[in-house]
Amino acid sequence: MTIVYLILSFLLLLTSNLSAKDNQGKIIEEVDSLLELSKDSKYNVNIESAIEYAYHALSMSEEVNYSRGKAKSYLNLGQTLFYLGSYEKSLEYLSLAEKEPYVSGDPVMLFEVSRVRGQIYTYLNLYKQSIREFQKCLAFAEDITPKQNSDYCFSLTYENLSVVYEYLDSADSVLYFMNKNRQVLESMDESFAYRNMVNLYTSFGNIYSIEGEFGLAKEFFDNALNLTEKYQYPYQSRTYIFLGDMEVRKENPDSAMFYYNKALSNLE
Question: What domains appear along the chain, each with residue ranges and CATH number?
Answer without folding.
Answer: 30-89 (no CATH), 106-188 (1.25.40), 194-268 (1.25.40.10)
